[in-house]
Amino acid sequence: MTNTATANVTEAAAALVLQLPTARVLSATRLPSGATVDRDRSGAIAASFVGAVSADVALMLGDSELIAEAAGTDSAMVSVADVLRPALEAATAVFGAGVLGGVSADGDLGVFDDPASALFQLATDTGTPAGWFGIRVREPGPSQPTIATEGSVADKLGRISNVEMAMTVEIGRTRMSVRDVLNLEPGGVVELDRSAGAPADILLNGRLIAHGEIVVVDQDYAVRITEIIDVNDGLS
């Protein structure tokens, strides 16, 4: 693992504990290389992050009271994985633009057993172990030049030019507590983090590609493109 990746995993663990919805303050201490987590993984949640840098992350809270605090509700609408997802998003955000996949409670994706993973012990302010966080960075290999010879994959890319992709227009975001989500009712107002008149973000399969303004065409909403984002800028 490169020095940059090492620094990033430390930042990821620090970002994670700041976002964990627990009543107690937690800290993350990196375990020595080769250390393992000798615990039942049935309570682990995990997800994969794909972007300029890709990684797998896994989290276990060893204290059942901490898990109950994180869930915050007995509603079947919200699972512990749902509540802990923002913490995993904060951890992977240190790697730049990308998409965090679905958070699974079916295992740890092998993160805690992989020697290539960086493992952290989470502890309360009194030093009591409260959980573990693991992150496995999948660094890209050296790139090779692509020659578009006849019959090659590059030569055949034109055949998929009609494949449909999901385009999303985003006018703003917000963060809400589980309590506020459960209290939503018709007529309620959710305030977003963007002022009126600010450009909307246009995302293709989750990646920012352009900015635009919302317009009305034949009584339907539409978006007028005002700026195309360079691919390298979108990944930064």
Task: Tell me briefly what this model is.
By secondary structure, the chain is an alpha+beta fold. It has helices spanning about 5-20, 65-70, 80-90, 180, 230-235, and strands at about 25-30, 45-50, 55-60, 100, 120-125, 130-140, 165-170, 200-205, 205-215, 220-230.
As laid out across the biggest beta sheet, the strand order is 1-5-6-3-2-4
Range of helix content: 10-25%
Strand content: 25-35%
CATH T-level topology of the largest domain: Chemotaxis protein chec
Biggest β-sheet strands, sense, barrel? 6 strands, antiparallel
Alpha-carbon distance between the two ends? 21 Å
Mean pLDDT: 78
Structure description:
A six-stranded antiparallel sheet has the order 1-5-6-3-2-4. It is an alpha+beta fold and 236 residues long. The protein is built from five helices and ten strands, in the order αβββααββββαβββα. The chain folds into two domains: 136 residues, CheC-like (Chemotaxis protein chec, 3-Layer(aba) Sandwich), CATH 3.40.1550.10; 71 residues, SpoA-like (Surface presentation of antigens (SPOA)), CATH 2.30.330.10. Strand 5 and strand 6 form a beta hairpin. The longest helix has 17 residues. The mean pLDDT is 78.
Q: Helices and strands in order, then pairings?
A:
Layout (H helix, E strand, L loop, with lengths): L2 H17 L6 E5 L14 E7 L2 E8 L2 H8 L8 H13 L5 E3 L17 E7 L4 E10 L28 E4 L7 H5 L17 E5 L2 E11 L2 E9 L2 H5 L1
Antiparallel strand pairs: 1-5, 2-3, 2-4, 3-6, 5-6, 7-8, 8-9, 9-10
Helix pairs in contact: 1-3, 2-3
